[in-house]
Write a structure and sequence with these properties.
The structure is a single chain. With 84 residues, the chain is of the alpha+beta class. The chain has one domain: Alpha-Beta Plaits, CATH 3.30.70.100. It is built from three helices and two strands; from the N terminus they run H-E-E-H-H. Strands 1-2 form a two-stranded antiparallel sheet. The chain is globular and about 35 Å long. Keywords: Monooxygenase, Oxidoreductase. InterPro entries: ABM_dom, Dimeric_a/b-barrel. One of its GO terms (molecular function) is monooxygenase activity. This is Antibiotic biosynthesis monooxygenase.
Length: 84
């Protein structure tokens, strides 16, 4: 996740704790970590789910959440690995 400025980064920081809590509570979530990098505008996200369906459910829930509203427009560059 790459913010373009401090305002976007503040939005991420304000919503992140609840997003992590809700994601880790989801059925099928094996692990979910969001780590700050040396760049205060960039976070590394690593997530693992038991099945593609569990990941899809996460995407649906997160996409309709406060997290999605608060981080709308913030760049995400990710790869999905290990899913059929």
């Amino acid at each position: 996740m790459r913010c373009s400025d401090d305002t976007e980064a503040a939005r991420v920081r304000a919503a992140l704790e609840e997003h992590i809590r809700l994601t880790r509570a989801e059925a099928g979530c094996v692990s979910f970590h969001v780590t700050a990098t040396e760049d205060p505008l960039v976070w590394q996200v690593a997530e693992e789910f038991t099945t593609p369906a569990a990941f899809e459910a996460h995407q649906a829930r997160a996409g309709a959440s406060d997290w999605a509203r608060e981080t709308k427009g913030i760049a995400r560059d990710y790869q999905i690995k290990g899913m059929p």
